[in-house]
Design a protein that fits this description.
Length: 776
Amino acid sequence: MSLWARAQQLPPDSLQKVRAIYGEHFPIEVRHCLAPWIESRIWTQETDENQRFFLEELLQEIQTHADLMMSPDTFLTKMKLLEAAKNFHLHYTHAPHELYLYMRRCLAMEMEVIQSAGAVYGAVPHTERKYSELITGLQSVRQKVNMVSEDIRTLQSNIESFSLQYHECLKNKGHINYLQQTGQMTNERRELEACLRVQIEDMERKLNALVAQINQSQMQLVDHMKENIANLGQLQSQVLDEELIKWKREQQLSGNGVPMQSNLNTIQEWCELLADLIWTSRQQVNNVARINSKTIVELRQPHLAEMLDEMSKQVTSLLSTLVTSTFVIEKQPPQVMKTNTRFTATVRLLVGGQLNVYMTPPRVSVVIISEQQAQLLLKSETAAGRGKQPVECGDILNNTGTMEYQPTSRQLSVSFRNMQLRKIKRAEKKGTESVMDEKLTLLFQSEFNVGGGELVFQVWTLSLPVVVIVHGNQEPHGWATVTWDNAFSPQGRVPFQVPDKVTWLQLAETLRIKFCSQTGGDLTEDNLRFLAEKIFSISVHRTSLPINAMELNAMTVSWTQFCKDALPERTFTFWEWFYMVVKVTRDYLRQLWCDRLIMGFIQKKQAEEMLSKCPPGTFLLRFSDSELGGITIAWTGEGNEVFSLQPFTSRDLTLRSLADRVLDLQQLQFLYPNTSKDDVFGKYYTKPENEVLKNGYVRPGLVTTLPSYISPSPAYSAHSPDSHRNTPSVQSSYLSAATPAQDSFMDSDMLLDQIRNFDADSFDELDLYGAGVGLK
């Protein structure tokens, strides 16, 4: 978060202090409109040479912003900016550095107000503390870097002075030799020689003192540069190894639904400051090496050239690490990727603007590689530089792009908007592995020129693991692989290793976040305990889970339990059941769940026990144990007999909403334990529409009914059964609500869609059943 963005969040009294900082010489309108540009320039332009151009750049920036203000609402602000530009030009043309220093003082005062407010109104957030600490550290290094620049200028001046005096001394010695070798020594010549010898002695004393001073200056200079490089290495480690890695981890967790407040722009600010200081330090080392190489032999320190060469390698290595590490994937590709389906991704170089990489616009290419290839790539990079090009395992269309620079945001990035995976080559499977267990990754590669081609960096970065599917039926298992990987991948892992077992506490939190992010409603402790009973295959008739929460949380769940082994007496796994519950809730039951009208996670027997103690007409809604993505209604009938309705699936809820079905069934009166259904479901009932259409036809309507032998509660009159429907019979202790007949076979459109998406290379993944095509 920028300094100005933080200032705008201050409480009123502190905000008033910030307003008081700005006045005629630095209007607050300029501070507001040019905030990113001002902060970038103020933190990076302390040298005299750069300050000379500060005013010119500021006036140009103001004019650019003013030209963009075309709306009448921004007219007054535009006039303020133009007036400020006129005053800046009038007062600071001959002293641009004074304007720079004035603005710098304003920003320093602003930061003091923010830090003081943080101390008064509570702890400063982690990112804000990091921002202040890193800025302070970087500013401290900048001051030392500037001091080194002054020392280099002084050293250069002293060497030039030494050179002049040294040559003058040699000239005098040559004059003495001339006097001694030519002509007879007269008194006049002897006096001249004596005078020259006195001058030579004086010059030699001065030269010896100057040599000592230069030698000392050189060693101090080397020490200062070493210290700066070491400090820059520590600061860079904080940014790249802590903050950037943390951002990448948060980006991965966001794939499971964890909220992410991206601070990538703040990280870019830190990286840009680092890039500027590292580049300046590298130039300083090279300048000292150049000066040393051109000085006379008498001034050359032993081993100085070797020390400078070593420092040059260190600072260049820092720059290389910074450039390669800040090539990041800002927007990840989809982690469950379907062949022949368009997808997008965005990569960004955080230091591209600062190092002027955009002057030679880099091209980025994308290929898909296997987990094994990713391991080999990382191993070769760590061992002895980049190895051979990884072997691709698929064909991606539209997989190249040129990075573009946005001056206002200072971002160098490229967005791939129309990539498409045409074909995939699978790795050989082992044991019970399926194609949905296989993890692949997208490799983004480019080449950056820094310093006008002085340095060339080969860069690459890997996307989060992706699972490639060829049919929608593979999607649930694909998301199982991705969800487990996102949640439990260790830091610094070998691609893409994950633990085979995790604690229930870890998995429960992952399921809770996944459900909440998709549906908008959280899971309670009772909901999570129900899920624990299901994944550990414990029913109300079997041994119960530990009552102690710590013992339950410490129990381990394996990958096989999670998504491989079928639940007892079922043909599907725990993950398949949970995934379909999330899907139907997200698509059709979101508001009902958020309003706590769906009990959902409760076993059938437990629901029957609860309802059997309630008056007739009491009902609750629970997720089906036997039907994937099904929700059923259980209610109390006459004689406290409990009935359960045949579960509604997404196909049923597409035809008629669950709330309307509750309205239709007059046997249902009170939502458990005793709330009138109209009081809580009323706002979700579909409003009646005009029954006669404009074309004169009467609009038909769908109504949910029950078999005639299930009498409604006394308080309601039964709907007449639809004479055009067959009344289903009771099956498997469920009652079926009558709805328009649904063909159990796949319709022609669905079959055609599968045929279009059929991948001949993946024929071994397909299995035919019934009248349709399914996937293993």
